[in-house]
Design a protein that fits this description.
The structure is a single chain. This protein has 389 residues and is α/β, with parallel strands linked by helices. It has 2 domains: 217 residues, Thiolase/Chalcone synthase (Peroxisomal Thiolase, Chain A, domain 1, 3-Layer(aba) Sandwich), CATH 3.40.47.10; 147 residues, Thiolase/Chalcone synthase (Peroxisomal Thiolase, Chain A, domain 1), CATH 3.40.47. 32% of the residues lie in helices and 20% in strands. The strands form 3 sheets. Strands 1, 2, 5, 6, 7, 8, 9, 10, 11, 14 and 15 form an 11-stranded mixed sheet that branches. A two-stranded antiparallel sheet has the order 3-4. Helix 1 packs across helix 12 and helix 6 crosses helix 12. The protein is globular, with a radius of gyration of 19 Å.
Length: 389
């Protein structure tokens, strides 16, 4: 088993989102600056105020009776485990930590219509996905709203550091359904046009769905089975604004606290960070306050750090958002390429950092910081680093 001095490494990744199924579809779409947001297709769009979303494709072969959330997790998990070449007893003993906003809401709706048994409720998404993936160890589902993906990865790292697990399949998921979409529309936080992070014209986010999963394990366990690390999970931090149910705190102090906690946990100074993946929802308050929070953490150097907002292409995938963006950070570390913030053509004067507008950029990135925040005041930050040697 591992100990607190052992590194935690990423050995496999899996994704499904509005850009397609698989990490390659995610990464190639992001680098090309392709927006995956489009018309709602699985719902009756005429029933809803907002009729476009970041809908993910349903994987082939799952069957119409399988909850889309289970389908997303199964597809992303199979890809991550496959890339890590994990099988046999090591696979069966892999712990599961999933983060989500809405969990089994699709199954809940079927239960309410008399189409599914009560067993389809809480906890069953993780259990069913783990069963499909051949994982027999402990399964945990957490919810820190839209900060859930990062938080799940951070919790998985803690399990490995403390010796309670050698490896964890961790990340986030969410699926759009009638009740979910009606509730999100009622928040009046979505744009009827486009998601434009940091742009003067931004007027709201656009929600999406999918799953992003990382297989993380102790470096010793990875070495023992000959696995090739993709990146190192250096640290994470969480915080609560304790301010308002839906509005971010007035000065971005919660985000500042999460970023500083993550850097302390990683034993890295702010000067070590080469890139920030911002939460960047495209809502007027979030982008302004996140800009201020980044300046508070990095000082004058903030203006020289490339910051991007991938929700401009992915939509806001809720529990999956920061996990998908963590995968993008790993790819940036490996490929030396930072995906752009698209739809940023008229920068807000209050958002005056380097947001990598419109086109991907080559850059040597050794350490990336991934931000996430959620309704209720949850914040989570993950620090990922290049695997050297």
């Amino acid at each position: 088993m591992s100990n607190a001095n052992d590194r935690v490494v990423v050995t496999g990744m899996g994704a499904i989102c509005c850009l397609g199924q698989g990490v390659e579809a995610l990464w190639s779409g992001l680098v090309a600056g392709r927006c995956g947001i489009g018309p709602l297709r699985r719902l009756d769009a005429d029933r809803h105020r907002i009729r476009h979303a970041g809908e993910a494709p349903l994987p082939d072969g799952a069957g119409s009776g399988v909850d889309p959330a289970v389908q997303f997790l199964s597809a992303a998990g199979a890809e991550a485990l496959g890339q890590a070449a994990l099988d046999g007893d090591a696979r069966r003993r892999t712990v599961v930590v999933f983060g989500t906003n809405f969990g089994a809401m699709g199954a809940t709706e079927r239960l309410m219509r008399g189409e599914a048994p009560a067993a389809a409720l809480a906890g069953e998404v993780a259990r069913e996905a783990a069963q499909r993936l051949g994982l027999d160890a402990a399964q945990t589902t957490i919810s820190l709203s839209c900060a859930s993906g990062n938080a799940a990865i951070g919790w998985g790292m803690d399990l490995i550091r403390s010796g309670r697990a050698e490896r964890v399949l961790a990340g986030g998921y969410d699926a759009i359904s009638e009740v979910v979409w009606a509730g999100l529309c009622s928040l009046r936080a979505m744009s009827a046009t486009a998601l434009r992070p940091f742009d003067r014209r931004r007027d709201g986010t656009i929600f999406g769905e999918g799953a992003g999963l990382l297989l993380i394990e102790s470096a010793a366990a990875a070495r023992a089975r000959g696995a090739r690390p993709l990146a190192v999970v250096r640290g994470y931090g969480t915080s609560s604004n304790a301010f308002h149910m839906t509005h971010p705190d007035a000065h971005g102090e919660g985000m500042v606290a999460a970023m500083r906690a993550a850097l302390r946990d990683a034993a890295l100074p702010p000067e070590a960070v080469d890139h920030v993946n911002a939460h960047a929802t495209g809502t007027p308050p979030n982008d302004r306050l996140e800009t201020a929070a980044i300046k508070a953490v990095f000082g004058a150097r903030a203006a020289r750090i490339p910051v991007n907002g991938l929700k401009s292409m992915l939509g806001h995938a809720m529990g999956a958002a920061s996990a998908l963006e963590a995968i993008a950070c790993v790819m940036t570390l490996r490929e030396g390429l930072i995906p752009p913030t698209i739809a940023l053509t008229d920068p807000d004067p209050d958002c005056d950092l380097d947001y990598v507008p419109l086109r991907a950029r080559r850059a040597a990135v050794r350490v990336a910081l991934n931000n996430a925040a959620g309704f209720g005041g949850c914040n989570s930050t993950l620090v990922l680093a290049r695997e050297e040697g």
